[in-house]
Structures are given as structure tokens and as C-alpha cells.
UniProtKB/TrEMBL annotation:
Gene3D superfamilies, per database record: Spermadhesin, CUB domain, Thrombospondin type-1 (TSP1) repeat
GO cellular component, one term: extracellular matrix
Protein name stated in the entry: ATS13 metalloproteinase
Region (Disordered): 172-193
Gene: Adamts13_1
Subcellular location per the Swiss-Prot or TrEMBL entry: Secreted
InterPro entries, A to Z: ADAMTS_ADAMTS-like, Sperma_CUB_dom_sf, TSP1_rpt, TSP1_rpt_sf
A GO BP entry: proteolysis
KW RNA-binding (keyword) present: no
PANTHER family in UniProt: ADAMTS A DISINTEGRIN AND METALLOPROTEASE WITH THROMBOSPONDIN MOTIFS PROTEASE, PAPILIN
SMART domains cross-referenced by the UniProt entry: TSP1 (SM00209)
Domain of life of the organism encoding this protein: Eukaryota
Amino acid sequence: CQPVPKPESRVEVCDLNPCPPRWKVSPAGPCSSSCGLGLAVQLVTCVQTLHGQEVLQEEHLCPVAEKPLTTVPCVIRTCSYEWSFSEWSECSTSCGNGIQTRQDFCLSSLTHKPVNPLFCRHFPKAIVLRGCSAGPCPEQEGTQSPGAQLQPVKPATHLPTAAAAPEHRHKDLGVPLSAGPQEQTKPSGGEEDTAKRSFLCVCGNLFLNATGIINMTGVESRDCTVTIGRPLREEISVTILESSLNCTAGEVVLFSGRMMWRTGCRKLPLSLINSRTNTLIVKQRVVLPGNGVILQYNSRTATKKYYQDCDQQLFGPQGEIVNPGQFPAERQGVVCRTFITVAPRQRISIRALKADLGPEGNQTHFNYILVRDVSTMRTVVFHGKKQFLWQSTGSQAEIEFHE
């Protein structure tokens, strides 16, 4: 081309419109599990190229339907042990709402046989309890069973003696008669058969009287658990009147509360146990039929304050919790707790009908609801405006409302 004149070199702008925003995916982080199936988090952002540089944009400017996943599955190696579960049981009720349960066990991936659960203690375990519905109950539609309201137990103006009528003690507590079983007493004469049948049903009950006797001898189940509940500001003392436990066979009785734990078998008669708080769980494990203990319990004003003035104690099968409550202005900075205790054979479901803890993205350390499962001491934190459903593994739960 040498003989031909060369044109001048020049650059022209071909398109002034910027490229549309697009999704940008950063490399995934470490796997959440050291073995087995886990999740890795990858950062997904909305960017736009302007003048040759990527500029961060708001997410709504990128196509929502095309947004990549923020978590991706990952596997580092096969786990030697893992949790396995049985099939779900049938619904506990033939109509209405009930529960389903399943058994969990630790499984070896090599032998495919159950092993000691300690081998699986570092792995998360799925739920073993869930709600179920067997359809409406025609005879109960539009009605409510007695004592179906979850009510705070009010402290008695005086603590009745053992000779006082059970219904008077329930009246002092401000709870329905059906909320707890009547006081158990020793049988006499022709009442022996009737009393014996009532003793067999003592397991799994919640006792709300100020004082009473609980006979746990002759129960059919190997494990028998009862709970004693009183208002806040009170504590419970238990005296073991009789014991026929066979210590060499491994029979034992366990006392547990929020601030104490004690187990024993030998030298039990006339020994005294103090709960230190307003609830006490008694669990008896026997091997030989007919063995067991007879307890007498009393309540009294607590020697030390273990609660805050804005705390609440609730007993009963169902009810409503509203926060914030009507507290004085000087207590607004205090974290108030709500304690829920039901019968040992029951479990607790907490459903948030309405929650407003600020914007979803503003998950600060100050605005949240904390729910604690007392039996496992595991806590769950809820943020934002989610209408969550929480279920316990035991019969006690605590709720804290932060800010």
C-alpha cells in the first residue's frame, strides 16, 4: 500500500449506552461440614460496568429470576457416622391437632449399624417431633375444653396446710382445676383399689398445689416423670417419705430444676431436696415392678431472688404471649423472660402470629426474639418479620424479648 496515501487514524465512540447490570458471583467459601453433605456460601452481588470499571448496584436492578444461589452444596469426604431416623409415628390423636414422633440413632456408614450416640454429637440432628392434624373433631367444634387458657399462676396470699381442700389451693393459684392433678394421698380401706389406679396414672403429670403427696410406687412404666410448679417468688422443698428403690439394680430418682440437679438412691428416706426456683422435675427410673418413692412437697417464699420483676411464669395447655407488656418506663432496658412449663408428657409449640423487629436486612444484635429449649439448653434467635413456628423437645421453654 506504499504508493497509496494512508488515511489518518482516529477513534469514534460507537455506543454511549452502558451495559445493563448483571450478577457477579465470587468464589465459594469453606464447606460448612467437615464430612458429608454441607453448604458453602458464595457472595452474589449486582454490578454494572461503567467506563471500564465494575460499579456495585442495588440488587433490584439485576434480573431477580436469574440471581444465582448464595449457598451451594459441597462434600469434602464421606462421614464415618451420621444420624438416622425411624419412620414418623401415627398422629397422637384421632381428630384435631396432635404430634408425631420418631426415634433417632447414630449410624456407622461402614457397618450400617447403630453405635453410641456420642460419635454423632458434632453433627446437627433433624427434628424428632412435629405437629399433625387428623381433621376436625365434630363434637368439639366451636367449643373449648375447661382449663384451656394459658394463665400466669398467681402467688397465694397464704400457703395452705396439707389438710386444706385441693380446690382451695387451686383457687389461690388462679388456675383451672384441670390444669394439674389432685393431691395424692395414701389409700385406706375400700379406697385402696381406686387409689392404686390413680397412682398408676401419676406419671407425666404437672402438680400446681402449694403442698401435696406424690406416690410413685407401683407404676407400670420404667421411667416415671412428674413436674411440680409454683409461681415466681416461691421455691419447692421435697421430703422423701418412703423409698423401695433397688440401688444395686440401677434404680434411681433424679431431681432437676433451673438452678439445681441431684440424683440418688441410697439413704433417701427423710432426705430433703430444695428446688431453689419455682419448678422442679422428678424423674424415677426403676427396674423391678412395684418399687418406687413416695414424696411430700411444700412451697415457700424463695430465700434468694432468682427472677426479674418483669419475668412471667406460665402454665397450661395453650394461650397467648404479647410483648411489649405494660412495664414501667424505667424497666424498658431490661430483658424480660417468659417461662413456660407444661406436663412432662406434653411438648410446647410457639407460633409467632405477628412479629415486627425491624427490616429483614437489619439483623442487629439488639432486635431479636430468643427462644430456649430448657431440656437441651439450645437457643434459637428470630429476626425481622417472620411468622415463625418453634417446637420444644421437652416440657419447659423460655422466651426473651430483646429491645
